[in-house]
Amino acid sequence: MILFHGSNIIVKHPKLIKQTRFLDFGFGFYMTENKAQAISFAEKVYRRRQEGSPVVSVYELDDAVAFADCSLLRFDSPDAAWFDFVYQNRTGDYKGAAFDLIYGPVADDDVYETFNLFAAGVLDREDTLKRLKVKELFNQMVFTSQKALSHLKFKSTLGEDGLIS
Predict the structure, then answer these.
(1) How far apart are CA 153 and CA 165, in angstroms?
(2) 10 Å Cβ neighbour count for 31?
(3) Would the pLDDT of 56 be above 90?
(4) Which of 57, 72, 143, 145 could form a disulfide with 29 if both were Cys (CB 3.0 to 4.6 A apart)?
């Protein structure tokens, strides 16, 4: 499987760096199979940090080996379990089991708006889940341990010009 990581720097050797924000799947190194999504994220990171340049690091993962070797939490759709997990991570309230790898849909800006409506009490859980099911969500994979990161093989980068170097 080919995975992409968008940033403002080339990341040949991923590291686990403590984050100050609450993200969909909690702490870890975030990647996606969707090149366009990674490019978009690289542009956002560059605009936010105002240094470096938008760049996408490209990796190869033998998912059969990694999934067998590591503990894996997998969500195949934005269902109730996914919603609960993401919502608890986004609010900093997740207290469940830890996993080496987490795979599933990524919550985009429209999804965050839906989460905010739920948190404000405007939507109940059932209405929130209905709204989420009509969204086309891309995927993300989060590496939360050194064991999981050891399965990644850096291949190349994708720069601003869209060319792989």
Answers:
(1) 15
(2) 28
(3) yes
(4) 143
